[in-house]
């Protein structure tokens, strides 16, 4: 990719840190309005939004007004955006069913792309984008932003120094997201001018994607409840499971799972010599209770996350450790107020201008699908009973 100077001209002599990456955004819904557009606007020394794509003309008009400076180009055609010479990086934050399709479009045109989680819900689609990446100048960066929080990276280092892990717990039980969004200060809007053909195409793609995962790959009955659980694991669950993999590795198996959703569900992972519990779901209490806690004999390390929809809330690390024979101390470390989305975009910038492969790439995301499979297979008996009842 040629260098892009801060004034938009080409040239290889400028420092890479003076480049302004031009971003095209596919998907102008809530996450774009609340998270991505404000964050990229704040990072104007690194990024400039030049193109927007959505099936809703109202959403395009609304989001275009949120971008300072020259008005971005707008389109309802994803390939038009991906092929534009005015776009260096494609940000894909539309419906899950289009993540891989539009990622492949971006790669076909040699563009780096940040794809919101989940990259995909089945192995077939992950393999498709991995293959497309091999023949492209561009790279895939998957948006599991919690893994770029400074406190999380510090916790990974702390856990790596432990002699032995005894136990770990991953929790993500949150209240209504609408409450956090309403307090974000971004004033997002919802629109309804979606073409009927687009609505039908999305429903068809969602169904096919879920059937491929559950029925063809996981060997799990395709029922309304198994579909909902797969979508939950791909949505909220990807954050937790991806971070769990980085801090304690991949589990050997799932020892048990109670997949009660809607509600709160729990999974027990078996590791080599220790268990890990994962609990997640939604309540009506407007609290964001998300953390990862790792236990050793003499030290307990915890990463504390708050809602990402209110900008600037810190991610912290708490360390509780033994002191002497009968004492202990607790330390809470907050090195920065920079939120995970900001840190993720700064890392994306460095990956693009320095040609580095991101740690949260397409191949890495395949491990998340492996965990979806393990969890859903562990709860398959519930879905078998549901399928049997439906057939009577």
Descriptive account of the structure:
The chain contains 12 helices and 14 strands. It is an alpha/beta fold. The chain has 2 domains: 21-143, Rossmann fold (3-Layer(aba) Sandwich), CATH 3.40.50; 146-339 and 360-390, Dihydrodipicolinate Reductase, domain 2 (2-Layer Sandwich). The chain has an 8-stranded mixed beta sheet, with helices on one face. The chain has a 6-stranded parallel beta sheet with strand order 3-2-1-4-5-6, sandwiched between helices. The longest helix has 25 residues, at 224-248. It is globular and about 65 Å long. InterPro entries: Gfo/Idh/MocA-like_OxRdtase_N, NAD(P)-bd_dom_sf. Residues 21-143 form the Gfo/Idh/MocA-like oxidoreductase N-terminal domain. One of its GO terms (cellular component) is cytoplasm. This is NAD(P)-binding protein.
| Rounded average pLDDT | 94
CATH arch. level architecture of the largest domain: 2-Layer Sandwich
User: Which term fits the overall shape?
Assistant: globular
- Which oligomerization state do the chains in this entry correspond to? single chain
End-to-end CA span? 59 Å
CATH class of the largest domain: Alpha Beta
List the secondary-structure elements in sequence, H or E.
Answer: EHEHEHEHEHEHEHHHEEEEEEEHHH
Number of domains: 2
Main-sheet strand order equals 8-9-10-7-11-12-13-14
CATH homologous superfamily classification of the largest domain? Dihydrodipicolinate Reductase, domain 2
What amount of the residues lies in strands?
15-25%
Task: Evaluate the radius of gyration.
Answer: 21 Å
Number of strands: 14
Number of helices: 12
Which spans of ≥5 residues are poorly predicted at pLDDT below 50? Answer: 1-14
> Which structural class should the secondary elements be placed in?
alpha/beta
Helix content: 40-55%
Largest sheet: 8 strands, mixed
CATH topology of the largest domain: Dihydrodipicolinate Reductase, domain 2
């Amino acid at each position: 990719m040629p260098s892009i100077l801060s004034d938009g001209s080409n040239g290889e002599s400028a420092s890479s840190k003076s480049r302004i990456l031009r971003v095209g955004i596919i998907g102008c819904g809530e996450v774009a309005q609340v998270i991505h557009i404000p964050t990229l606007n704040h990072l104007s020394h690194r990024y400039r939004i030049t193109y927007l794509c959505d099936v809703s003309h109202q959403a395009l008009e609304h989001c275009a007004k949120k971008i300072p400076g020259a008005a971005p180009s707008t389109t309802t055609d994803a390939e038009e955006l991906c092929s534009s010479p005015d776009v260096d990086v494609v940000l894909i934050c539309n419906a899950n069913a289009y993540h891989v399709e539009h990622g492949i479009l971006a790669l076909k045109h040699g563009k780096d792309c940040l794809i919101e989680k989940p990259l995909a819900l089945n192995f077939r689609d992950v393999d498709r984008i991995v293959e497309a990446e091999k023949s492209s100048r561009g790279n895939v960066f998957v948006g599991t932003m919690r893994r770029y929080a400074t406190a999380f990276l510090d916790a990974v280092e702390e856990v790596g120094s432990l002699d032995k892990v005894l136990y770990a717990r991953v929790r993500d039980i949150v209240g209504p997201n609408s409450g956090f969004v309403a307090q974000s200060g971004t004033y997002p809007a919802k629109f309804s001018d979606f073409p009927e053909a687009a609505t039908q195409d999305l429903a068809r793609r969602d169904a096919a994607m879920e059937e491929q995962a559950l029925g063809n790959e996981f060997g799990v009955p395709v029922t309304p409840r198994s579909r909902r659980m797969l979508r939950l694991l791909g949505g909220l669950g990807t954050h937790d499971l991806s971070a769990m993999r980085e801090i304690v590795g991949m589990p050997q198996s799932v020892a048990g799972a109670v997949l009660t959703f809607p509600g709160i569900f729990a999974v027990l992972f078996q590791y080599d010599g220790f268990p890990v519990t994962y609990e997640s779901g939604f309540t009506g209490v407007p609290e964001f209770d998300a953390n990862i806690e790792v236990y050793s004999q003499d030290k307990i390390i915890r990463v504390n996350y708050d809602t990402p929809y209110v900008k600037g809330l810190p991610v912290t690390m708490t360390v509780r450790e033994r002191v002497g024979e009968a004492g202990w101390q607790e330390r809470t470390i907050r090195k920065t107020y920079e939120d995970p989305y900001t840190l993720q975009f700064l890392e994306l910038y460095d990956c693009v201008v320095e040609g580095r492969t991101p740690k949260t790439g397409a191949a890495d995301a395949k491990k998340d699908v492996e965990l979806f499979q393990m969890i859903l297979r562990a709860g398959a008996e519930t879905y078998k009973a549901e399928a049997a009842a439906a057939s009577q």
